[in-house]
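ugh ok fine here u go
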Amino acid sequence: MTTVHDIALLLEGEVVGDGTLAVTGVAKIEEAGPGSLTFIANPKYERFLGTTKASCVLVGRDIDLSKHSALPPAVIRLDDPYSSFVVAIERFMPKKRGLDPGIHPAASVHPGAVLGPGASVGAYAVIGDGTVIGANAVIHPHVVIGRDVRIGDDVLLYPHVVIREECVLGHRVIIQPGAVIGADGFGFAPKKDGTFRKIPQIGIVVIEDDVEIQANACVDRATLGDTRIHSGVKLDNMVQVGHNASVGEHTVIAGSTAVAGSTKIGPHNMIGGCVAISGHLTTPPGLKVAGASLLSRSFTEEGLSVAGFPAKEAGRWRRMEAAARQLPDLLVEVRELQKAITALQEEINRTK
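structure:
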C-alpha cells in the first residue's frame, strides 16, 4: 500500500494533514475521488482545493493554504508540483507492459533476426532479416521492422509503427501508433521534359536514446548519410522531419510542424505547433518558436524567442501586430485628413 507519507518522502515534500492515507490512483483535480492523488500547477485550479474529493493534492509552496476554508484530507507542499506528480506516477503507478515476453505465434520474425532477452513481439508484427532488437523491447501488433535495423533496450513500439531498413533506434525510445521512420526523403530532380526523376534515398535515420515520437509523425531517411534525432527529443503528432535534417538533444516540437530537409535544429529548442521550417537552416541552442510561425532564415542568438510569418524576434513581432491592428482606424483617419487637406487647399485657391 502506498501512503501520502510514502509519496512525500519520495518527492521531498511537506505533508499538511493525514500522511497515513492510502493513495490508490491518480486523477484530474476536478474529477478525483477518495484514494486519488492529484496536483495544482496552474493558479486557476486553486479554487478546487476546497471542493476536490481527492485524498491528497500536490501544491506549490507559494500557495497560501490558510486562505482556504476547506482543504482535502492531505496536502503535500512542493517546489514543483507538476514535475513531482510525474515522478509519483512513474514510481507508484507505472505503466503496464501490455505484452508478455516472447513472440506471438501470428508474428513473422525472420530467422536471421535477433531478439534480446525479455523482448515481446505482438501478433502480425513483421521483423526482417538481420535486424537486432535489444532486451525488454516491446513490439506491439502490426509493427513492421525492415531488414538490418538496430533497436536498443527497453524500446516501445506501438501498433502500426513502421521502421524501414537499416535504421537505428537507441535505448528507451518510444514510438506511438502510425509513425513512420525511414520512409524515402522527398528528393526529385527536374528533367528537361518537365517530368521528375526520383533521387535514390540510400541513407538512414538514427534515433538516439530517450526519444519519444508521437502518433503519425514521419522522419524521412537521408539521401546520403543520416537524418538524426538526438537524445531526449520529443516529437508530437504529425511532425514531419525531412531528409538529412537533424534535431538537437532535448528539443521539443509540437504537432503538425514540418522541418524541411538538411535543416539543423539546435539543442533545447522549443518549437510550437503548425510551424514551417525551411530547408538548409540552422537554429541556435534554446530557440523558442511560437506556433504557426515560418522560419525562412537561420537564427544565431542563443535563447532567442521568435514569432510570426516570417518569424522575427518575438518582441518586435508583437509590436508589429499591435500596429497592424490599428491600421483600419488609421486608414479612416488618413482619409479624413485627405478630405480636410483638399478642402483647405480649395479654400486657399478661392481666396487668392
